[in-house]
Amino acid sequence: MRHFIEPNSFSLEEQLALLDLADRMEADPAPYAHLCDGRILATLFYEPSTRTRLSFESAMLRLGGKTLGFAGAQLSSASKGETVEDTARVVSNYADVIAMRHPKEGAPLRASLSARVPVINAGDGGHAHPSQTMIDLMTIRQRKGRLDHLTIGFCGDLKFGRTVHSLTAALSQFEGNRFVFISPEDLRLPQYVKNESLEPTHQIYKETADLEAELPHLDVLYMTRIQQERFFNEEEYLRLKGCYQLDEALLQKAPQDMPVLHPLPRIDEIKKDVDDDPRAAYFDQVHNGVYIRMAIILALLDIPDPVTGKKVLEA
Amino acid sequence: MRHFIEPNSFSLEEQLALLDLADRMEADPAPYAHLCDGRILATLFYEPSTRTRLSFESAMLRLGGKTLGFAGAQLSSASKGETVEDTARVVSNYADVIAMRHPKEGAPLRASLSARVPVINAGDGGHAHPSQTMIDLMTIRQRKGRLDHLTIGFCGDLKFGRTVHSLTAALSQFEGNRFVFISPEDLRLPQYVKNESLEPTHQIYKETADLEAELPHLDVLYMTRIQQERFFNEEEYLRLKGCYQLDEALLQKAPQDMPVLHPLPRIDEIKKDVDDDPRAAYFDQVHNGVYIRMAIILALLDIPDPVTGKKVLEA
Amino acid sequence: MRHFIEPNSFSLEEQLALLDLADRMEADPAPYAHLCDGRILATLFYEPSTRTRLSFESAMLRLGGKTLGFAGAQLSSASKGETVEDTARVVSNYADVIAMRHPKEGAPLRASLSARVPVINAGDGGHAHPSQTMIDLMTIRQRKGRLDHLTIGFCGDLKFGRTVHSLTAALSQFEGNRFVFISPEDLRLPQYVKNESLEPTHQIYKETADLEAELPHLDVLYMTRIQQERFFNEEEYLRLKGCYQLDEALLQKAPQDMPVLHPLPRIDEIKKDVDDDPRAAYFDQVHNGVYIRMAIILALLDIPDPVTGKKVLEA
């Protein structure tokens, strides 16, 4: 039995097979509509995350399956002091696969050790949110036709932005990519991400505070929200929150085929006038999210693609 | 693509077609049990309203569809500062139709402007709750056989009572109705409702505080709850909350065929001894609610009635 | 129409038929997978209880049915002052069967008086949690092959432990059982449980504080959690919470075929090293819980077992 706790829970080959399956389902979902008839997904969300929870639930429903779960720790048995391990083992009796969101890093991993069914990490604190990373890869590949030899700009909160860390690691698996990290001084990429993801494979990267100067040279721009909930200090948040604002005027400096990604929700770092620009790819990400999660569920339940006969995961 | 934001989002002809469809489904639900197989309803409730949410969910389930959503703002991404427009556009990827409840007037309308799927207003602050209005019309028509030439008494909180305002507007579309507004001085029908709904079509109406005197002359009585949550002042609420209490003794003054409606929940404005009186129609309203919501979903998804071949909405 | 408010809502014969049905479904669930197609279960949980709610929902989903409901009073209309009676009557229009959890004793009984569909008590304060009792019986019978002539040790919080009171009553229906109540002085079995369950049928029982001394003589051990939420006094809770801790070393004193039951969640009254001992039966209970709840739903909906043709409830 396999789990999906971080992107490299799957080999690179498996990750690409997952993207292929998601692409096929997006192109024609009909053959997949009943693959999970009679199966149940449990969404155990120890903190609210509407977007992610509903995306997983929609994925399971679109495969013919059903869902149950909870959407906040106050609704769970956590308040009675139960460990995540016990909860996972218990819920293994109620569902065929578990998607867990937890404010504490490592909780989904701990859950997977006692669960009797596959566990998907749907975000654990500052650690990982691997389905989001797969969505980002799928969207970049759709827009650029490849995942290598790209110059990718990451802009905004690179310190707390978990999706940035994971996507950096994921793109480091491919050849010839160049990373441009654009942030205020106080929100730069942490040293450990450089040590773990960039240095070992000698990635080419630069750090800067100037979005405008970099725009003309990017193949992909990945914007992020300054996340109020990560700041201890309100004043600090207020000082930094409006530091980058991409609007249609600024976007004129960028190449015509440079997609703009954002994991959403956004506040004001991307203005609404960008939404109608063909480069806006952040609603594509939401759309792709359902297919990625369908693919993850099929992979972990070891259900082959009825069209190709192939499974995502190797034996 | 059409939305259902207020009763006159649908033409009068469409409203009547909706009532007809609801009546047919109530009489024989079997032919409709699989019309929404594979479809998903999202219930986005930014404030709790169990009755309305469960009614919409039951409607979708009884059509063969599935549901997902949230039941309170603390469970949503609203806490991260996302706009209703972005949420609606995002959720359009997860569901085929959205029912939205929001404490702020106009939120469902704003959602409908960015949504890629139909949006149903499931109540927005003091503004509208159009499915409730359709339920009221369906129930009156079932009981009285018509929606015109009726004397309708509205009793209780006519100031904040959104359902009263909407039903007044809806009944003003029909000929020969007479409106009797029964309330304490402080909870009278707002001037703007008179200006918008009663004056333009020269409706006949009167205002009074005396329920008992009016009872013998009414064709329909619509009771409402004094809603604590609308008062800023606890003292004010306590003074007014018990101002009308309909019990079986008082009901003896009313005609034998005068249905008593109430949008529920009730506190003590209708005593339990009325429940067994054949004139009690408020549980009929709950029952009809599921069929009205089934009809709204079918209308917006543009699914024809398999029995008659007709669609509710004109092209 | 029947309800399941406490274990003896069903006759002893019916209880045994329920256990038989649950056993058959556990052995082979396939013939039961579509018995509730098109049916809806409402889970009305006025206090959170993830385990119980998800178990009921999983049961209904595994029968082919669907679910709706709420998972905490703050999400319900209770905050608008609606009575449980009105809510139950309203929800009867949305669902075919109701499972209700409520902090107040007697609430599910009151609900059943106005409901138009069967009501299952999913726990009401200190009163009853009858599906848990059925789970306990099923698990004991699976492990020991019988429900009579057993020496059962109950250990921990016997004062507030609702499951202990119910299981004591249930086992008193069978011949030749002996009860050993193991607790600190302050958490002894209440006198009313003795009066109601033990005295009328002259059951043999003893009370002690010494778990270790009793272990070698038990056929079954039922452990319970010291429930913080039942204490008014934090200090009192802290003094008592660690009073019994069963670990693998202590378990060596017990017979090799003495199952250890616990209604879960546990804190530290059973150590993790016991989990791998074949005597650990508490995860069996969770597993059995889904089948018991499937059986209760089928019983109340009066759906016969397609394999045997038998119904659980007598006409």
TrEMBL record, chains A, B, C:
It comes from the Bacteria. Gene3D superfamilies: Aspartate/ornithine carbamoyltransferase. Residues 150-299 form the Aspartate/ornithine carbamoyltransferase Asp/Orn-binding domain. Its EC number is 2.1.3.2. Heterododecamer (2C3:3R2) of six catalytic PyrB chains organized as two trimers (C3), and six regulatory PyrI chains organized as three dimers (R2). NCBIfam families: asp_carb_tr, PRK00856.1. This is Aspartate carbamoyltransferase.
